[in-house]
Amino acid sequence: MSKFLRALVIAVLLALPALAQAESALWISVDQAPVRVWRSAEAEVVLRLPRGTVVQPLYVQGAWTRLSEPGGQQGWVYQGHLASSPQPPALADLFDAAPKTLILAEAADTSRSSRSTVPVPVRPQGSEALWSVLDLRLSPDDLDAFLEQGGIGEFARGRQRNLGRRATFPKLHAAAPSGGEAERQVGLNLAARVVPRLAKPAFGNALQRYVNLVGLAVARFAPGNTPHFRAVVLDLPEPVSFSLPGGIVMLSTGLLAALDNEAQLACILAHETAHASLAHLWAKALHSQFFQAGGTVDQAGVHSPLFAAMLDDLLATDLTQGIDKNQEFAADLAAIEMVYGAGYDPQQMPKAVESIEQAGRIHKRQEPPLVWSALHPPAKERLARMRRLLVTLPGRDGLALGTERFRASR
Question: HSE-up of 186 (CA within 13 Å, CB side)?
């Protein structure tokens, strides 16, 4: 090598920022994690990796890691999408809308074409608003654009760095194994019952789309079995939110009105999504007579009295009795981890609970659904547990509030 080339190489190396030594193996911790051609959130995405993928890190630079994926392709991944311990694989596509095959107890069995014996699902009359939300098509690219607009996560403004040690969170375990498509169909049947009995979805898909994008931002970081995710905003003045098996979250316009910013909305959506990913209501379903007697979620099974009784029991838990308090505490802690991982400010979690508590005192209900505060453990105990975790989190640049976009969207 000539003296000129040697000097040029040395100059280039000296100009490069210091590269941190990478670990021996890492795991993708979010579904559809983008691998980019360069260490920038604006760089082109060359492929997306599912949660649980084992990757070989090459080196670290700033908030980015260059790695090699199992197929041998190299690229840059945001460090917030990587974990140093094995991650469970995604059991479902987080971005999937309602399935093509619906098995609904309150619908006609099937509609058959005279030219084909393939059954066509029939949806209950008057449920168009619900299905328009559940059928929303939202892609990973849509989420990237949303995060970029809000300066969230890897798109945070300015240089990103942790102001201290790495955050640690308690280990949380699912209450039951994933039920796959059966779990999802139970959730859809519950959603089909909620709307005609409780409230219609709020008018306009702009609001529904906005809330779903906030939810997807945090749902990617859910513990346990990452579910499909869809949020439905109900036109109801009281502050209410609840989770259905399979990843459907329902919340009221009254709850949105009680909140101050997008980070608080992310906290509530994360809390409800954590219930789904940790299978809290699904575990209760599995102990119902329907499943204990060997029931299956098919066209015959959903019309059995035991299936109807199970749905009634699950709705009573969601809207009247509330979930076990220890599961509520677990969902709170999971929500803090999820919003922190997504790039929202987790300190907004206790503020959201306090705001909803105050709104619940104004909007009282004597019939289901009871307001949020009546369906959760005492706020004082919840807040104490949250704050014990929050004070341990290292400071971090660029955590988002999203106040202006939230006020413009709700």
Answer: 35
Please tell me the distance from the alpha carbon of residue 75 to that of residue 57, in angstroms, as a whole number: 10
Helix (H, G, I), strand (E, B) or coil at 2: coil
Please state, in angstroms and rounded to a whole number, the distance separating the CA atoms of residues 386 and 396. 18
Which segment of 217-231, 323-337, 366-380 scores lowest on mean pLDDT? 366-380
Using alpha carbons, select from 269, 286, 274 the residue that is nearest to residue 333.
274
Express each pLDDT in 217-249 by its tens digit.
Answer: 999 999 987 778 999 999 999 999 999 999 999
Instruction: From 254, 246, 253, 234, select the one nearest 272 (Cα to Cα).
Output: 246
User: Could you report the per-residue pLDDT of 166-178, keeping only the tens digit for each?
Assistant: 788 999 999 999 9
pTM: 0.90
Q: Quick one: 181 exposed, middle or buried, by C-beta within 10 A (0-12, 13-18, 19+)?
A: middle
Please name the residue that has the structure tokens 């809290």. Answer: 280
- What sign for the dihedral angle of Cα 76, 82, 85, 88? negative
Q: What contacts 5, CB < 8 A, 6 or more positions away?
A: none
- Give the residue extent of every domain in the chain: 14-83, 111-409
- Identify the pLDDT of residue 224: 81
Output the DSSP codes for 127-138.
-HHHHHHHT---
Residue 244: burial class (beta carbons within 10 Å; 0-12, 13-18, 19+): buried
254: tokens are 């009254």
Bridge pairing between strands 20-21 and 26-28: unpaired
Return the CATH superfamily for domain 14-83.
SH3 Domains (2.30.30.40)
Q: Measure the CA–CA gap between 353 and 19, rounded to whole angstroms.
A: 42
